[in-house]
Design a protein that fits this description.
With 77 residues, this protein is mostly beta strands. It has one domain (3-67). 12% of the residues lie in helices and 38% in strands. The longest helix has 9 residues, at 3-11. The radius of gyration is 12 Å and the shape is globular.
Length: 77
């Protein structure tokens, strides 16, 4: 990861303990699942992101957000 991607990942508002992310695209009804460190793979894809925490029994949902596909995330000044 480059320094810019690391900064964007830190500015991403996500629940504490998030290990993975799942995106559901409204237009195509397809899904994508990645480790949170690979969140930049969702660049250019808009949809609803669900934040997950890996447990021994599977995954727990921690929260959701609408993602417009813009990466890196720009902080408002």
């Amino acid at each position: 990861m480059t320094g810019n991607s690391t900064q964007s990942l830190n500015s991403l508002k996500r629940p504490k303990g998030t290990t993975h992310a799942l995106i559901r695209c409204a237009a195509t009804r397809k899904r994508g699942f990645v480790a949170i460190k690979d969140f930049d793979c969702f660049q250019g894809v808009s949809g609803e992101v669900t934040f997950l925490k890996e447990t021994r029994k599977g995954y727990d949902e921690l929260g959701q957000m609408d993602f417009d596909g813009t990466w890196p995330i720009k902080e408002e000044e």
